[in-house]
Amino acid sequence: MKKVPVSFGHGCAVSDDMLCVAAFIDELDAEQEFTRMFVLNLAGTEPWNHHDIAGRTIVSVALRPQQQDVPRACYALSEYGYVRIMNSAGITDEEVPARGADQNRKEGRTYSSIAHIGDRAYVCGALNSVYRRDAQGWSSIASALEQQAVKQLQDVVAQITADDTSNIAALTKQMRATPNLESIAGISEDHVYVCGGNGLIMHWNGAVWSQIKSPTRQHLHAIHCLSDTDVLMCGHNGTLLRGNRVSGFHRVALGRNDIHFWSVRSFLGEVYIGTSSGLYTVTGGKLEKISFDLKGVPTDFTVQAIDSTERVLWVVTDKFVLRLMDGVWQLITHPDNV
Predict the structure, then answer these.
(1) What's the CATH code, domain 59-337?
(2) pTM for the whole thing?
């Protein structure tokens, strides 16, 4: 059988032995929307199983844990707001907002991150959009913020399309300042954080949103909430933030501004950071690159996602998976990539 090489995207830990990850077929045109969803089960006789999602590009994956009568499942969010909910019992497809994915595509409205927080799923994306999955479906919990961002963008577009282009530089700067959210995370439904472009940080207390003073103007890409009072965020040009909504956030000085941080995770007391040139840890206030004593692991690789259970750290790279358990790293390759 012909091998079909794939490149991995975002993924999430399901258990110590299971990982759910989105992948993209290398031989397809980059503009073609097509995602191959893999479930890696190290305890199974066939470790890699998949199904295809045609017409969609999955950008974020999250686990819904087992909750009383609600079974465990994985959420897969597409760029334009399609959500696939999948487990061994079957597959359900939804849209954010309800019956809104086609309209999102027409308007170019995109989404970036999905997370399961408390008892419900949350999604965030461009123009301060934040949606929550309730019994009635997906509904906005940030309508006022979204409307304000849309108006801000419309005002800039209206000026750009006018005949006078003398202030194009200023308008471009305004365009770049349009709020876009990159990541959403939280410990509970009254402590939800979002972050995004230009250092934007906001907090939802279950009723209202508040903007938190940010110590940076760098774009922020990922959040990991260790607790209500200890939150990590990472972003462009070596930006690592730590803090909370009450005492604020401070920038962790690492002495590196030549590398972008795309993902962050604290695991067993160590902070791990994913970049386009490998996996790093923060040790003694310094950024240190992990050198893997594993055959087949290149010096540089792109980290697409970092997630963990209590015992295992999962690292999804563009071409393979790394797993840390009991202090020992394991390289997991895909048969189509070797």
Answers:
(1) 2.130.10.10
(2) 0.94
Whether 209 and 145 have beta carbons less than 8 Å apart is answered as yes
Q: Is the peptide bond before 71 cis (omega within 30 degrees of 0)?
A: no
Strand partners for 308: 313
The encoded tokens of residue 287 equal 């950024």
DSSP designation for 252? P
Q: Which residues contact 316 (CB under 8 A, 6 or more apart)?
A: 8, 9, 10, 11, 19, 21, 303, 304, 305, 306, 307
DSSP state of 178: S
Which helix (H) or strand (E) segment is 306 a member of?
strand 303-308
Compute the distance between CA of residue 35 and CA of residue 132 in angstroms, rounded to an integer: 24
Size of the chain, expressed as the number of residues it contains: 338
Q: Which token pair is 214?
A: 């940010």
Please report, for residues 125, 130, 131, 240, the alpha-carbon distance to residue 94 in angstroms, rounded to integers and kept in the order given: 16, 16, 13, 34
Q: Residue 208 corresponds to which tokens in the numbers above?
A: 């209202």
Q: Where are the domains of the chain?
A: 59-337
Residue 148 three-state SS: helix
β-sheet with 137-140: strand ranges across? 111-117, 120-125, 129-134, 137-140
Please list the ranges in the chain whose pLDDT falls under 70.
1, 160-175, 177
Residue pair 20/72 in contact by the 8 Å Cβ criterion: no
Average pLDDT, the chain: 93
| Secondary structure of residue 274 in the 3-state scheme | strand
Burial (CB < 10 A; 0-12, 13-18, 19+), residue 212, is middle
Predicted confidence (pLDDT) per residue in 11-21, tens digit: 999 999 999 99
- Helix (H) and strand (E) counts for the chain? 3, 28
Question: CB–CB of 12/19 below 8 Å?
Answer: yes
pLDDT score for 159: 72
Please, are residues 138 and 97 in contact by the beta-carbon 8 Å criterion?
A: yes
* Chain segment 190-221, per-residue pLDDT in tens: 999 999 999 999 999 999 999 999 999 999 99
